Amino acid sequence: MTFAQAESDIRRIYETDKATFAEARIKLELKYGSTLQPTQNFNRRLVSFQANKDVKLHRWFKFKEAFSAQLVHRLIESFDLHPPCHILDPFSGASTTLLVANELDCDATGIEVLPIGDLVWKAKSQFGPQLISRLKEIRQWVESTPPGLSERPFPHVPITQHAFDAKHEAQLMWYVEQFAGFNENSSVNNLLKFVLLTILEDISYTSKDGQFLRWDSRSAKVRARNRQRIAAGKRLYKEFRKSSILEVKTAILKALDLIISDVALSKGSLNRSGKQRLIQGTVLETLPRQGAEQFDAVITSPPYCNRYDYTRTYALELAFLGMTNEEVIALRQDLISCTVENRSKLMRLRKMYESLGRLSDFDLVCDILSHNSAFQEILEALRIRSRRREVNNAGIISMVEGYFTELAFVTLELFRVCKPGAYVGIVNDNVRYSGEVIPVDLLMTDLAASFGFEPETIHVLDQRKGNSSQQMGKYGREALRKSILIWKKPGSLNAN
Ligand SMILES: C[S@@+](CC[C@H](N)C(=O)[O-])C[C@H]1O[C@@H](n2cnc3c(N)ncnc32)[C@H](O)[C@@H]1O
């Protein structure tokens, strides 16, 4: 393909209706054209939870936003990492990176803002053959004991109300009480709490479906809403029925069986030489407090800039862990800005950098962002679209602005905490709002280069997919890239 053809293809993607400018983004595409590498080595399955479905340990909790253990293995291999080495995952989720590091005897540090991640890590990292006989006894007890009904209510937050039918809820809370009464050691306790966490979706009327938490039409919540809609002469919500809602006892037995069979097959994590730890909190506040030049690699996947709200999708799990509504709302604001409700964190970040005596770093990030023409162009294009009433939610502009601003701070910190020669591997998706394509992969890479990273490769995965069909219908069927960004901190690891 000639340069002129490549440029005209790129123009077609960006200039959908010529209502805005795309010159800076087109320049970025041309600048990093040779860095973009279509790959068969990585695919969509590998960068999603799908490839974990049958993988022991990783399959215990369906964290749909996870990437696969296989992906982490492949990245570690491609970075030519061997123990002793220290890997960082600043968006640790279900701890996929930490668990693979454990398997390979590498040290690893994870950071995760959702408290769910903490319980998942505790349960998975403290497993071992020493637990098996006790787990089998508990399984036996569950199987032979008819479930009772507790009068203690599930600690709902408003958006989880009516997620269970009355019997399921009373039985779930009965198991909570029974398990607490067993007075187990903390490893078994964590596993039992974790078992209950993993079954919440299966025994509820809810389903984590794509972007949203879907509700079964039989739930009291949907029925009440439909009654209101009938009264208002509106159309009813589209019927949705989960294929199955498990009995609580069945779900617990299923979860325990999975754990018991995986633990029986494994050697356990206790005798491994690598050390892993999970820090619970927001990366924006915890990473700046980590020492410089300590990591040999970063393997991660931040939230995507796609309006996906982890605190809503996982509301049931957060409530189960005891979070109040106020805490869930506060947690939403701690997420990297990926929802239209996120407010700017800039003043908070300024204060923190000031308190760390690093105001010059704060100013550096702001300076880099204000001089990045692609970033500024995207924001201006969205403002133009908004004035043309083409942006269906005003929060999209602040989300996009917050997203890249916060990831720029994370990138500055990644550069600081990486050893010279360290590789960074990041999975992300490009997005499109109101026809404006946002090349997340290129913009993140360009910002990383401003902080000193060398862009190595952007692996472009096969089977691109567009975002919403509404967007594709209106602005063309151009697919969006899903990529793995590889950067390197200049220098050599061996020189350390
Ligand atoms: C795409 S998921 C990563 C999943 C992970 N790779 C795994 O295999 O489970 C992004 C994660 O970033 C977390 N996250 C969002 N904002 C964060 C923040 N400010 N600090 C730390 N983690 C955050 C989300 O809760 C989510 O678990």
What report would you give on this structure?
43% of the residues are buried. With 496 residues, this protein is α/β, with parallel strands linked by helices. The chain contains 20 helices and twelve strands. The protein folds into two domains: 3-115 and 271-308 and 324-495, Rossmann fold (3-Layer(aba) Sandwich), CATH 3.40.50.150; 129-265, no CATH class. The model has no long low-confidence stretch (mean pLDDT 92). The chain has an eight-stranded mixed beta sheet, with helices on both faces. Bound molecules: S-adenosylmethionine.
CATH homologous superfamily title of the largest domain: Vaccinia Virus protein VP39
Rg measurement, Å: 24 Å
Q: What is the CATH topology assignment of the largest domain?
A: Rossmann fold
Q: Briefly, what CATH class of the largest domain? A: Alpha Beta
Q: What CATH architecture of the largest domain would you give?
A: 3-Layer(aba) Sandwich
Q: How many strands, what sense, and barrel or not for the largest sheet?
A: 8 strands, mixed
Task: Label the overall shape.
Answer: globular
N/C terminus separation: 42 Å
Share of residues in strands:
5-15%
Task: Provide the number of structural domains.
Answer: 2
Helix content: 40-55%
Briefly characterize the structure:
The protein is α/β, with parallel strands linked by helices and 496 residues long. It has helices at residues 3-14, 23-31, 69-78, 96-103, 115-125, 132-144, 166-181, 186-199, 220-231, 248-265, 283-286, 310-313, 315-320, 325-334, 346-355, 359-370, 373-387, 395-417, 440-451, 469-475, and strands spanning 36-39, 86-89, 107-112, 206-209, 212-215, 276-280, 295-300, 418-429, 431-433, 436-438, 454-461, 482-488.
